[in-house]
Amino acid sequence: MNRVLLDTFLAVEECRSFSGAARKLYLSQSAVSGRIAQLEEELGVQLFDRDRGTRNLVVTRQGQRLISLAARYIDLDNEMSLIPAAEKVQSLTIASTDSLNNYLFKPLYEEIIKSRPKLSLTIRTNQSHENYRLLDHHEADIAFVFHQAKYSDIETTKILSEKMVVIVSPSSAINGKMVDLASLEPENEILFDWSSDITLWHDRRWPHHVIPGGRLNTSALIESFMIRPECWALCPMSVALAFEKKGSVLIKESSEKIPDRVAYLLTDRRRNDSEEVLWFKEKLIDFLHRDNVEISKIAGDA
């Protein structure tokens, strides 16, 4: 099928006239009508009728069927033309959660950007269940989550286990490095779903009927609530240290064992051996061992 003829057909269909299509395509009217005649001859159908009493063209039933087919053909032709260029471009799409992206992986991403400036790096921030979907639908090459789910083509690898602590307002009345969880008022908690295991433990530890002081799905907003002296929150160490560095919270050890926040790396078994994925996994392992031993137990070391 001739791409030029299809482009001309769609232009005539849009303008409903040969003269309008000629202006759109910077062609003579005779050239446009000649192309339509050639296309009609190739297909063996009439594509346009003249609307009685007007100069407008009306698309025939056969022409209506061609509209969507022509658009699909042109889209495919455009995609095929990009294949040679795509081979020259290295790309990597990472889907992760906001707390990992903002408080643990920022130095890793900066290192990647510096070491491979020609790599087209895409970072997507989503909740764990959405990251599974993105990887399964080939919309991400690498993903990070805080719970395990069964997907036939997804490989799940535990990469780190991070300690949970309690953070309180700098003006809190709580003294010392340790805090007794039994002394904390659940209605003053700023609640965030760090992982399914931690949520299960939390719901057994505190009554369901109490309404917390705040319920968030973006970790960065937690410190905003800490202007209230009575507020407190459970927090992974990487996030707590970032808040503490800015002076917005105090970190307290818990009197009770809180489940660690476990992070998992997701890769697609069908694309596990791609150059970019293998390279990123090496960078990730090196980064976790080099920079984050003090806040996390790295998988394989614990």
Description:
With 302 residues, this protein is of the alpha/beta class. 42% of the residues lie in helices and 22% in strands. It has 12 helices and 14 strands. It has helices spanning 3-15, 18-25, 29-43, 61-81, 83-88, 98-103, 106-115, 128-136, 196-205, 222-225, 237-245, 275-291, and strands spanning 48-50, 57-59, 91-96, 120-125, 142-145, 154-162, 164-168, 178-179, 190-192, 214-216, 232-236, 250-254, 261-268, 296-298. The strands form 4 sheets. The protein has a 6-stranded mixed β-sheet with strand order 4-3-5-13-6-14, with helices on both faces. A 4-stranded mixed β-sheet has the order 8-12-7-11, covered by helices on one side. Helix 9 links the parallel strand 9 and strand 10 (214-216). Helix 1 (3-15) crosses helix 3 (29-43) and helix 1 crosses helix 4 (61-81). The radius of gyration is 29 Å and the shape is elongated. The termini are far apart. The model has no long low-confidence stretch (mean pLDDT 89).
Helix and strand topology:
Blueprint: H1 3-15, H2 18-25, H3 29-43, E1 48-50, E2 57-59, H4 61-81, H5 83-88, E3 91-96, H6 98-103, H7 106-115, E4 120-125, H8 128-136, E5 142-145, E6 154-162, E7 164-168, E8 178-179, E9 190-192, H9 196-205, E10 214-216, H10 222-225, E11 232-236, H11 237-245, E12 250-254, E13 261-268, H12 275-291, E14 296-298
Parallel strand pairs: 3-4, 3-5, 8-12, 9-10
Antiparallel strand pairs: 1-2, 5-13, 6-13, 6-14, 7-11, 7-12
Helix pairs in contact: 1-2, 1-3, 1-4, 2-3
